[in-house]
Every structure is written in C-alpha cells, then in structure tokens.
Design brief:
The mean pLDDT is 95. It is built from 1 helix and 11 strands; from the N terminus they run βββαββββββββ. By secondary structure, it is mainly beta. The strands form 2 sheets. Strands 2, 4, 5, 6, 9, 10 and 11 form a 7-stranded mixed sheet that branches. The protein is globular, with a radius of gyration of 14 Å. β4 and β5 form a beta hairpin.
Length: 119
C-alpha cells in the first residue's frame, strides 16, 4: 500500500505563512506529477498547485503569487509554501500523485492536513 505522508498544517492568522510537506515512496516519486488539492466544507475538492517530474508548475488563479510548489527529488518530498494566507484558504489540503510517464498507472492520495486561517 503506497502512502503519501503529509505534514505542516495548522492554525494561522490572516497574512501568515505555512509550509506543507508530502513525502512519497522513492519508487514512484521520480516519475510522478505531484499535486496539492484542497477541500473546504461544502465545496468540491480543487487543484491548488501541481509540479511535474521535470519541474514544470501549475497554479490555481486564486493562489498565484502567494503559494509556491516545489519538490526535492533527493528527499522524495513535495512542498507547498503558502504565504499571505487568506480566510478563504481554510480547507483540508491533500497531496496527490499520478504518473508522469507512459505505461504506468496509479493514483495516490494523502490523508489530508487541515489548514485553518483565522480572520
């Protein structure tokens, strides 16, 4: 059973910062497109940011200029640096891994980590 292990959530005031981490098994990390999603109460899960195995990044419009996704291939870890946090960033954040190569099929999720931004 593949596990994505998230950490770094918590409670922060508006304007503050948090960094989320997600560790993945080395057997999949190097070939994975890694993403961070979030789900707020009563809302659908949405993509926040993603990073391909080669480093290409993609961001939701709502977080552009505030969040930075990065990956450390030596540590098999993806990070989400969240700056200038807003109340509407409050959600459970999930790490996600899908293959970035042909011929491999998997779809893994982390357990989620709560981010709460107080206004």
């Amino acid at each position: 059973q593949v596990q994505l292990v998230e950490s770094g959530g918590g409670l922060v005031q508006t304007g503050g910062s948090l960094r989320l981490s997600c560790a993945a098994p080395g057997s999949i990390f190097s070939i994975s497109d890694m993403g961070w999603y979030r789900q707020a109460p009563g809302k659908q899960r949405e993509l926040v940011a993603s990073i391909r195995s080669g480093g290409t990044t993609n961001y939701a419009d709502s977080v552009k200029g505030r969040f930075i996704i990065s990956r450390d291939n030596a540590k098999n870890t993806v990070y989400l640096q969240m700056n200038n946090l807003k109340f509407e960033d409050t959600a459970v954040y999930y790490c996600h891994a899908t293959p970035d190569v042909w011929g491999v099929d998997f779809d893994y999720w982390g357990q989620g980590t709560q981010v709460t931004v107080s206004s």
